[in-house]
Write a structure and sequence with these properties.
The chain is mostly helical. The protein is built from five helices and no strands. The protein is about 80% helix and about 0% strand. Helix 1 runs parallel beside helix 4 and helix 3 packs antiparallel against helix 4. The protein starts with a helix and ends with a helix.
Amino acid sequence: MTTELTMLAWTLVLALVQIMLVAAFRNKEVGLAYNMGARDTPCAPPGKITARLQRAQANLLETLPIFAVAVLVAHMAGRESNMTALGAQIYLAARILYVPTYALGMPIVRSLVWGASLAGIVMVFGAIL
């Protein structure tokens, strides 16, 4: 499997980890009974860290389809290169770093890390455009 496809696969693992992380934090806040129930009554809003983790998860899910399609197009078109591999690696590394920087409330660092993830996508796009 190519580096780009491997990075895509690990990004999917990261997406699942983020889903489970949010679920675990939210479960601590509202309790297992509420989460396993019908949720007919509203519950308290998420805590600060849980809300940050939810926003980090939503942000990943916004960029993941673009990254995935770019990697798949590069692969299917035979346009993979050192640049696409590096772009995919930068994207995944930045997305991993994004979770704790967002959860810990590090706004400037978080924005720089987000920018790095976008740069990774642009590097993959460079090969396919």
